[in-house]
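quick one, 276 residues, struct below
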Amino acid sequence: MLKSIDQITALRKDDPIVQSQERCCGNYGTAGHICIRHHAILTTLEKSVQTIKNEATEGPRPREKLLSSGPDNMTDAELLAILLRTGSQGENSLNLSRRLLNEFGSISALLNASYKDLHPFKGIGVAKWSQLKVIYELVQRSFLEKLQQQNVLSSTGLVKNYLISLIGHKEHEVFVCLYLDNHLRLISCHEIFRGSIDETTVHIREIAKECLLRNASYLIIAHNHPSGHLDPSEADLTLTHSLHKALQLIEIQLLDHCIVARHGAVSLMDLKIMPK
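---
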């Protein structure tokens, strides 16, 4: 196995395979010609040398950086490269990771990509796609586990991160409900309505029914803006006030309304515009 640039250089100069070109050249009639098979070997070796040089100039490799600095000091591409492990011929895992993130726009969108979406990328097969899906599912379950064990008001950042990973990447508008018990812990999360690219028809009666079925005491609602804009619209504010008023009749408190996009989320409670 070749372990360094020096070994590759030595092989190119001294290996009998390369020296045998003179014997092979006689078959082609000219001493200046190189045997096609041996030329291919040299081309592969040159690419290997260039790959090693490129990686050496990029600084510490992702695994080395993880050991020395920890995950908090790593870029998204570096973390993804560790997961992918390998790239393809002519492209290492780090460059492949950068290209994937640039193409899909966010980690959440990439983790939600279908095999059909990822298949065109050389170096991504069923095994790597499966790893990405498993990682996404484990992250979702980790969020849910934490929200089921603690008061959501003490972890509003966790709620936002969960919602971003859940619906922030979607290209159509969806409306979800987070049903909470009387200790403000998550009972369940439910996508209750789905709309077009820019609107969702929300039925207050259906939301109230689902709250009663789950014996919820509090409710957080959320929907995504595929456009990426996080400012609540007049329709968002009108819905919030109408739903708050309706739920009061059945002694359920609407705690918050979150607007979610690919790269972030806002909370009407944080903005101090939730009805009291």
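Confidence is low (pLDDT under 50) at residues 17-26, 51-57.
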